[in-house]
Amino acid sequence: MKLVLWVLALLAAAAVIVLTAYYNTGSVLFTVPPYKVELAFNTFVLILLFAFILFYALLRALSGLSGLRSRKVEQLTRSGLKAFFETRYDRAVALAEKAARLADRQTIKVLNAVVAARSAHQQRNYALRDRLLAVAREQAPAGRALALIAEAELLLDEGRHGDALAALQSLYSTGGLQSTAVLLLELKARQMAGNWDAVLELTKVLVNRPAVDRTLIDELRFRAHLENIRKNAKDIASLRKYWGSLSYREKLDGRLAVAAARALIFLGDNATAQKIIENGLDAQPYPELVTLYADCKSGVVSWQIQRAESWLAKYPNNAGLLLTLGRLCTYGELWGKAQSYLEASLSIEPGYPVHLALAQLFEKLGKQEAASEHYRKGLDFALKRIGTA
């Protein structure tokens, strides 16, 4: 129906033009001193029409040439991306680099420059990668963020965490809320740099992002706290202060409690170490804390025995607790109770530590034959463990 209407309109226009030309006897006079040119009006109209058609054809030709270039860039972009994901990095570099040179639009130029840079990185051609990233950064503002994110990621992969952080800081200077992926890049860079305080700050932000695994955040926080405990393990005041800054939940993490208590015992602060261990064991019988409690000589062994017996009532038949009680009673010279606890531990879980504790007890009691027997059995357990390691 639309075609029919167009045909009728064209026929009507043609009829009007023919009738106008037939009855029109006017002329057009052009005067450019000293020349004069007079044309029939119909001839003038035909010249105008021809000029319009010629101008329109020229515009179409130019548009076609421009479209040809755009189609070429589009084809190169598609082929470059395909080669990149097929891990044909040499071809991806060639195609994407050419597309970046030919592209007029900033976004397409940046996209191809980054693809070429990533491909060059996979080939370990870092000089070419850096040059291509510089090309992408120059296309501000369209390419700055994309180029800086790619630069940070690739530099981290190369192990240059300092330069990666510099790229991220340049990105942050533009303002705005940063994506989870960008924050994870910074988190990795901070880990590589050993800046565990910054890692802890980043985890506080990332924990509220739905795309981030909470288990991963918890492990990162544990690692950061553990490294900070080690960093502060040379000074009692610093270590106490850092431990005090932890949340109640974090202080109940047996792994952190062991690290802090062990460092404090080494520094001679057995009282603080004892409190840390006792708070941890009140929550759960973490095996390393149980073992460490016997090494914490605070001077009031009767209190330690009382606390350990309360945990044993809560967690009966715990071989580790029985061993710790035996060692504490030995230290307190409660020989009968010590032997009873150690033999109970041995009946539940035989091993090198309990045989060693019994051997040391019998040595104190002057029973050398029994001590030698337990030393021998303990050595057998130790050798078996080495053999299966």
TrEMBL record:
Its main location: membrane. It comes from the Bacteria. GO terms for biological process: heme metabolic process; porphyrin-containing compound biosynthetic process. GO terms for cellular component: plasma membrane. Residues 26-123 form the HemY N-terminal domain. Keywords: Cell inner membrane, Cell membrane, Membrane, Porphyrin biosynthesis, Transmembrane, Transmembrane helix. It is a multi-pass membrane protein. Pathway: Porphyrin-containing compound metabolism; protoheme biosynthesis. The chain crosses the membrane at residues 39-62. InterPro entries: Heme_biosyn_assoc_TPR_pro, HemY_N, TPR-like_helical_dom_sf. It is found in: Cell inner membrane. Pfam families: HemY_N. Involved in a late step of protoheme IX synthesis. This is HemY N-terminal domain-containing protein.
